[in-house]
Amino acid sequence: MKQKLSAKLTLIAAYCISLFEFYPTAEAFTIDQWSLKIMPLGDSNTRGKALDRAGYRDDLWALFKDNGYRVNFVGSATSENPEIVLGKNNTYVFDKDHQGHGGFAIAGVGASNAWSDLNSEIEDWLNQARPEIVLLMAGTNDILFQNESPEDTVNEMILLIDKILAWSDQVYLFVSSIPPINPFALKDGTLKSQKADKYNNLLANLLRGESYKNKNIRFVDNRNLFNPDNMLEDGIHLTPEGYKKLAHAWFKIMIDIGTREEQDDIPIDVPVEIEIYSN
After folding, report:
1. pLDDT tens digit string along 28-46?
2. Which domains does the chain have, with CATH numbers?
3. What is the pTM of this model?
């Protein structure tokens, strides 16, 4: 029979409840029905590139497994990912599923290898994978390949965010700032770097503002996370060490979802409904 358990995450400083507390850990349960479905969504910095074919995803997978969380990465893409990932004291079979697409813009024209954009495909992807958490990082290709302002790129991101939140009131969305663009690595690099910085600042202000207060969304502020050594020579992709940093940032905010951060001025109630199936 199917039972529904409704729970509410109340984000207050004195009493913190982690989202993952509602999902049994690997030590307690071994059946897939308990796994939390997570969709990594974005461009090639989600898919992976060159020296690190899985981007941050293999590092994030190892963090979950090392700490006993049962998770299920979902998405229609698998790419050429490793079969096994190395954790602190163990190796794990890697869940390759994701929704990272090289060259994809949030909306409109991306790189030459992009067959669509995130806004055009997101609803089909959500309906197919049915994630409970979405990890979104996008905007780099809009800046690289479109003659638009950072404000325009943010407006496209608003449309994408709103589609995800409208798809289900049970999905929780984490949106990261994009990595910096090296001004010396690209043609018009200084302008593109400035656009990326402004885009990140606008995105931070938007997601910390009134428009998304009390909604199932969090901004993951990685604007000061990366140094030049964390960037490849192409100026836009991360090194393996950079992806490792990004994985830790995703992991930290997810397991600390009950902790009120400095950006929060008042308590926020986030309703979460979980379906539990039993015989």
Report:
1. 323 355 689 999 999 999 9
2. 2-277 (3.40.50.1110)
3. 0.82
